[in-house]
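Q: I'm building a small set of examples for a reading group on sequence design. Run inverse folding on the following structure and report the sequence directly after it, with nothing in between.
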């Protein structure tokens, strides 16, 4: 019978093969929160007197992030930022879970309803030429809106729930496709693109996806039980499957890959010219082109609405 490596309890619920640790429920939760805190402190992601916005979708990763940050930094001023994408049933379900979580943590919740604010939803892109790239479109929209929300909420730091699996699979995909400038952006902390904008940080880069789920389960964190009807990550998924196979032989393989990439990024930064940023002529946000990707994409559905 296995015993908890930390407290010696016989009620083991989690085994972490990369650390060769069997843990009971309480010790796992403490281990998880301590790792989040250590990651924040290691990369100096924020100060305890900062106002930190947390992008919360209602899924396990972002919900675990908000909950664990509250536990790790009880005096930190947190603001939960949520986007209602207007996807029937799914978006309302997600928002309801985020409301429950924010209330349980006594944390301010700010919701951006794109139907109310912009006059369209993610669903409207299904009628455009991007219908088969809806996940990419959704990502572009969310990144821009979270930047807007961070400005409106006056947060100095924006935290996102990117986990270890996300980081490593995206790193491999970006690396093998030779997108060097994009690879540089996959860092634990990114400085603001312009004065007044927020730093972006990833406190869960050393947390596995399944551990985020376990944290939510054992902490009774409300999370969505519905999957997005448009979810499609075929390009990334093949790397996730490859990583899972390699991790069967070496449980610490994902951590090795992450550490090697983090060592490589400064070298790439020095070798790859930094893109010249200008202001988007439509929204005024930093962009490498006269009109940013967000404004180009949203103009398609806006034109469609105008034609009715």
């Amino acid at each position: 019978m296995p015993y908890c490596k930390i407290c010696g309890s016989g009620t083991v619920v989690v085994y972490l093969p990369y650390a060769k640790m069997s843990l009971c429920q309480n010790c796992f939760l403490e281990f998880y929160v301590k790792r989040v805190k250590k990651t924040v402190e290691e990369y100096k992601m924020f100060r305890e007197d900062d106002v930190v916005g947390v992008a919360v979708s209602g899924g396990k990763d972002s919900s675990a992030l908000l909950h664990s940050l509250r536990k790790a930094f009880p005096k930190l001023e947190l603001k939960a930022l949520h986007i209602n994408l207007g996807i029937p049933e799914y978006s309302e379900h997600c928002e309801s879970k985020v409301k429950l979580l924010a209330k349980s943590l006594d944390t301010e919740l700010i919701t951006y309803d794109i139907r109310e604010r912009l006059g369209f939803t993610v669903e409207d892109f299904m009628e455009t030429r991007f219908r088969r790239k809806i996940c990419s479109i959704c990502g572009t929209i969310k990144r821009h809106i979270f930047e807007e929300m961070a400005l409106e909420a006056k947060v100095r730091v924006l935290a996102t729930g990117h986990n270890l699996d996300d980081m490593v699979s995206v790193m491999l995909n970006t690396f093998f496709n030779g997108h060097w400038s994009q690879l540089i952006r996959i860092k634990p902390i990114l400085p603001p693109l312009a004065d007044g904008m927020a730093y972006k940080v990833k406190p869960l880069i050393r947390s596995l996806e399944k551990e985020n789920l376990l944290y939510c389960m054992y902490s009774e964190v409300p999370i969505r039980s519905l999957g997005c009807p448009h979810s499609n990550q075929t390009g990334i998924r093949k790397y996730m499957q490859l990583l899972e196979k390699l991790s069967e032989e070496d449980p610490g393989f994902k951590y090795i890959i992450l550490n090697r990439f983090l060592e490589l990024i400064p070298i790439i930064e020095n070798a790859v010219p930094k893109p010249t940023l200008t202001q988007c002529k439509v929204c005024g946000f930093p962009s490498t082109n006269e009109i940013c990707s967000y404004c180009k994409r949203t103009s398609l559905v806006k034109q469609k609405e105008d034609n009715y």
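The domain at 39-273 is CATH 3.40.50.620 (Rossmann fold).
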